[in-house]
Records
---
Amino acid sequence: MPDTVSARHLLRGAAKRSAKGQSGSLAPRWGSTSSLLFKHMPMKTFLAATLMASAGACTNGVSGDRSTNLQQPGAAGNASDDSHANANAVAPDLNAKLDSRLFLLVTTAVALPTIAAILQWQLADPQARVGLHLGLKMLSMAVSLAISLLTWNTRRGQPTNFVLAGFGHFAIAILGGLEMLIVAITPGATFADEGPLPVVLQLSADGAAVAAMMAAALGPSSLARTRSIRVGSALAAAWVAISLCVELTASRWLPSIARTGALIEMSLAFVALFAAWLFARRYRRGEAAFALLSTAALLAGIGIAFGADLPLGDLSKGLFSRMFKVIAWLLVYRTLFKEGILAPWHKLVETGRAVEEDRKRYRQLFETAPDGLLLVDSNGAIVDANPAAAAMFGWPENSLTGLQIEALVPQQLRTSHAHERSNYFSDPHTRSIGEARLFSGARRNGESFPVEVALVPQSFSGGNTTLCIVRDVTERHGLEQSLLCLALQDPLTELPNRRHFHDSVEKAMAHAERHGSTLALLCIDLDHFKHVNDSLGHSYGDELLRQVASRLKNALRGGDLLARMGGDEFALLLLDAGIDDAAAVAEKVLGALSLPFVHAGRTMKVGASVGITISPADARDVEEMMSNADLAMYRAKGQGRNTWCFFEQRMTERARERALLQQDLVNAIKRDQFALEFQPRVKACDGQLIGFEALLRWHHPDHGKVSPEKFIPLAEESGQIVAIGEWVLRESCKQAMQWQLQSEKDLTMSVNVSTHQLRHHSFVAYVKRVLAETGWPPTQLELEITETALMEDPREAADRLHQLVALGARIAIDDFGTGYSSLAYLKDYPLHRLKVDRRFVQELDANRSDRVIASSIIQLAHALGLQVTAEGVETLQQSEILKEHQCDEFQGYLFSAPISSTACEAWLPKLAHCDAPG
């Protein structure tokens, strides 16, 4: 092989052969590579190659899209550690410092070998070189010892593979110390001439280092157990013992320890490089700690390789080898320190903050609870009280603490209350509100008032206490008294009114909660009742309500409660009813109301929409339950009326999400959250590209990719569609102009226009302005408008379209066939193209009706001089059928899904040489 072969080529070839597993020719190839590297290649060339390799590996190890957070011990595979992510969120400054230190280490990996080369060149005195080498060796041994001590102190929280690596460094420290000891007691020795003792120790230390790396690369990432800790320590001790035995006997069976040691060192260097590849592979799978270890393995391999060309006992020539090893061990120490110390510390900090937040949250709940909360000890003393309790009993805030509980009881009842309290604390038990009789409380001014009390035993280190939940029922009692005086029935239908129904539901929910039963509430709203009032008069409407009430009562089960809530709305409470029972009753209700109603010779027909909610699954209080039933009822109306629908939690979540999305939509353009995708349009005859349709996409930072079907209506409601439409038009024309300059051929850009955009008074003006700013030819702009947009105000739409055509723009009708049935606009409006909706294309090969509709649209368009584009073409059979009916253009997944602007550039060579058909 020529002497001019580059170091990078040799290293790459060796790495490829190692990765392919060419075990048969491994030793000869390694030997030849070593010879070329260290005999025929200048040392400066090799130094430059290794520096580039170390710098590149360090950069690749810590950069990119992957997080540098460490994986939690015990997590396997690609699973990420949420607790570590939270910890990094808690202490970002500390992580920033550590990442900056890592950058310094990587920089040192490049800088220090260069400094060592300068020192070696400057230090002419061999003893000075020896001193420098010994200093580096002592530093390497100290770092290895630090790694082993760190591993021992964090052995219960480290993964098994890191524990094994740590014990391997314990062996490295012991062997390095022994080698230093031999140097100390053998002054002036050159060990290459006087025996293999230090050589074997160095080889053993390097072997222990490579073994530690392989253990970390191949070992399991599960949490270390006692057995693995014992195995690691035993292996480290065994390695040291075997090394000492080999040291004492090596001279008897190794004729040339230096030459053999060089081959061993070269082999260990390649194994270390292989370990670096393994670390990088695990890092790509999501185990981020291995980014640092891959760099450490690479540097260690380079350091070992530097020693392979030297007489292993020549201490004055090993500066490069020792320098790389020191840096590698520092990276290993940083990895294990972050895994064993920082990650648990972050987790501890996060846990402490969570505990503090919980304490504050529970205290806030205690302070803001609407009911009075009193914490009472076994002697009757009030330990704590919330502001609601102080306000309830008329005491200043924080003044109840230390009082006897009997101070809150009327004077004549205090003796009996003390006796009951003593009995309760002898056998404390939980008592809910409503389980016992009403009690009387006494305000500070002596006024008595009725209360309900719940008792919850509490156990703390200070002794047993009881939480008393006191509810003032004065208002409820007053309400109950007023209800006795008021009519409990609706005067028109003789059904319970809203107030009566509300109280009944509240009592029923309390009863159901105590006994673990379920309730169903049905909200019934008549369909088209207003039409009866408006057309026949209110007297007929009143009679209809009376007949509806009569039919509904006949459809009820015994014990169920029917009420008129007001207007044409009724409510039905089903006791001890589940989902199946509620659905059956809803069907009976719809059946009872399906027959016509007759009054004074006139027939009246109405249906009903029924919303159903179940307690306690859907709600815990009356208001929430009735609100849920209303939501379900409106959903039933939205599904076509005369049906029933159960409440779902996502109804309220959807309403909340819709409001938040509408707020975020306001700043979406400023925050650069919008993007365009483009779908090619091709000629039906030969598949050549004609142009693209621009499609808007919203990449929300929290919700990801938001569907246009979700955010376009929101933009129209909020008025943002005008600004968004102008942005889409400008970006589409700008992008199309770039493509046309690249291909030097004409193409058509299609842009969708909403109803609100077309009706906006400045729509034509901003189209003209965008065309002028971007330089895009108006004749190559096609605006796609729906039938609905045209028919909302036909005269205004016609004026807008004529103005746009006067500019040179082309007009296409999108989703043709799915809007208004009137075809008058086809002859009145200046149109150029019809786009057949995908619903008529998807089943062309299986549905004869779709084929007839598609064929009719194509024939109609051609008869009027219009071009036709078929949307949603996904199969060859669909395209062949459309070709048979002379469809002009295709657009769909058969040719391409909507793609990014970069991906569209691959289509430009397919652009038709002629202009798009007119």
---
Amino acid sequence: MADQAPKWIVKDGEGRIYGPFATEKVLRQIEKGYFAGGEMIAKYPGGSWIPISKAPEFYDKLLDVLAGEAKLKPRPAFGAPEVATPPDLPSLEEQKPHGRVVREFDASESDAFEVSKGPGGAEAAQVDRVGKMDDKDVIELTDLQSLKREEKMKASKLPLFLILASFALVALAIIFRPEGEPRKLRLIAPRKGQPEISGQDAKERFRRGLVFFQHDTLPSYLRAQTEFVQLIEGSPQDVGGYAALCMTYRELWSYTTQDSEDMRIFAQVAQDAKRLDPAGFNGATCEIMYLISVSRFREVHGLTDMWIQMQSSSAILYDVTAELLKNDRKWLETAGYAEKARVLWGKWLKPYIVEARARNQLRQHQQAMQLYRAVLNANPKHHVARIELGLIEMESFNQVDKAYEMLKAALDAEEKLPRETEFSATFAMAQILERRNSRGQALGYAQRAYELDPNDPTVRNLIMRLGGKVVSDGGGGSNELLARGDELFRIGDYLGAQAVYRAAFEADAENGMAAMKAGRCFWLLNQSGDAIDWLKKAVLADPKLIPAYVLLADYYGQRFDYLSASKTLQRAQKIVPRSFEIWRGFALVELRRNNFKGAADFAKRSLGMYEADAETYVIMAKAQVGLGRHGEAQSYVQRAIELDQSNVEAQSLYASILVSIQGIEPALVYVDSLIDTYSQITDYRVTKGELLLKEERYGDAITALKEARSLDPRNKKALLLLGRALHAQGQNSDALQTYLEAAEMDPSDAVPIFMTGLIYSEDVRTLKDAVRQFQRVLKINPRHPRAHIQLGYAYLRQNMGQEALAEAELERAVNPELADAAVLAAEAHFTLKQYEKCANEYQKAVARKANDVSIYVKMARCYRLSGAMDSAVSLLNQAKARESGNPDIYKELGATFHMRGLAAEAIDAYQQYLALAPNAVDRIEIEAAIRKIQSGDLSIEQKGN
């Protein structure tokens, strides 16, 4: 009987096809990491290709592997010093520009643009060669595809020109879709290795590109993109061309697919610009434009504010600031900055539009109309200006007929318009036609408006009033929803933004960008579990979206799940083998593990690929601090600040390094200057509090951290540091309340609960509360470092040796190299009077580089009580050679000599102990032992110590 189980064939990113496999076989290959989520899969025979991440049979397994839950090996120790070994790659050559053409931005490539493919038509992600499989399991079908095409061509009786014509018709059908289908563009990337052009040709392309750019319409920006791309291809050192292309990308971004490919193109051009001009304005312009595209508005604010002070004649900076203010609905400030941009660059029409919108909101209608007319005089095809002028005529001056002509002319032009503008125009047309009693035409426009924004209740009411039915079930296009989410994100409404991003993902399940942005919102809302879930959805929806992998790994690392973080980055590396962001991600994981050498090695690889990345320099500086190389750390962090003076993390790190090199006071002066300059950035006050806390200036730290909280009540780091400062001052009740607030912010974060457990464990009366808190920590995050250790010590203080020993074993299972687990086990065995096992565990701790002299003393005590006197004396002599002033060494030596019956040696050791610790709590007991030995009585009462 034939096998009825389904079979599958899999196609990798290079077009190679493997299979057929049974479902279980595919699941095993996913589990082993051979299939990373970027492949295509089809049922065999005759099935259609779909992304493997969209197949229900394999979706859950891909999620499990992304979460690091499939066959995990024991995690390396938290704080272990061993160096992570980077995966083998070809050696990285340093990329250094040969020469540089510095000009106030520049010019580039081709007029055509690519239309995105429909669902299921996306190319599979490029991955490394699939792991070895048995020959009997593999059918190499790559050559069969070309063979089939040849056979079809032979069988076809159509003339060649008809075949070519059919391809042309298909292309036209894709480009000119039906009205209801949104058309999305692709950014064009400059190609490497193109023929060089002359200096005169470069200047001419740049000039033409600027002319198109200034016209401020979608067709003109597309033409500008063509010129600037071709300029860069022919003159790849022309840094001004990169800046101009990045500015153009920014204007085109809302019309693009906004997936991993568009992001990759934008990021690559921005990186190339930074390589050519790492600390200059052209490089910074590209960086600002790219940061806008990925909604990193805090960095945009910082960079723009800094460069406006340094480059006050740049119109683009005032335009960016005006856009940011517009989204905050600060209309007066928006108008002022847009006017400044318009004055500085009078031929660029966009600032006129931005200022006109602000003037209209301020009810300065005549000024707004003058601005719109100036735009139309300069570019009669500027349909956005025509629509918005018509709306003012209608709404503010009741010039309905004039408005109708303007709106109809703009809509009839069939040019792609921003959705919000098109909605306003079609809705206004419906209202005008209703007034004219043209109900059929009015209903048509109303339904078109509803398709553009189904959430507007006034449109619904108008449709029903005109006798129509609400038939659309859409919620706006995915890109338009992304734009709405970005507006909410800019003003800090992360709750509202995540809802819109989720709606965008529901509208387009392949929009990984929407899922990634939703995940980032959840993280900022302190909902880390949801954040991680949404980032996993992002990488499954768009397997080439490398920033999502890097962010997912970052979030795993912040939850101490270093193995899942590393596995996530390894999966990304299979898809994009040469990415500086992935190497930077590995460096960050190792830094969080306190593996400073490993972090430095990975950061060096990242900088070898992209030497202008400020974030990597910050990681490298932190690694050098961990290695005790403060001079090198200062050099690296200074480089980060040179690249990006607005980088808050770099500035804060520089201040902390100053403490090590010059002392606390110069560091505080530096931080205070940052606070004065950037008064609204909470992080600098948090940094000040952290520096004061390390210097044990707890009162000053509390003041600084409370100031930070007043600016940002939801700053979790400020809360945690404030709790530590209050605890250090003995204000345990206030500290507990602070940690409770932090825990309420993010129920999935175990750190605040862990800190409450530490406070409870200090008082014997609240040890049971400590146990409950540490148990909660482990329930929330089983990988939380030292949670089993602290729980074990809480048990020990209640004489629960077996329970403490069990916690030591659980910690060892998670962190087999952690010395603390061996120390806890040793102390548990000591409580259980298992002295030989106690000594063995201390020996394991020493083998794991626990070099604390107290470990040697405690190990000697266990050897003494087990009867191994020579071993005890040997260990104590080693301890004395390393730290001769430690009184505990002499106390244990006295006890050892006492047990061996060596009276003089015992007395001498006990007296040395009392000399070094004159206020010892057991002084009376030791003096009594000395008197007893002096009387000739060498008997010892065994008390287990």
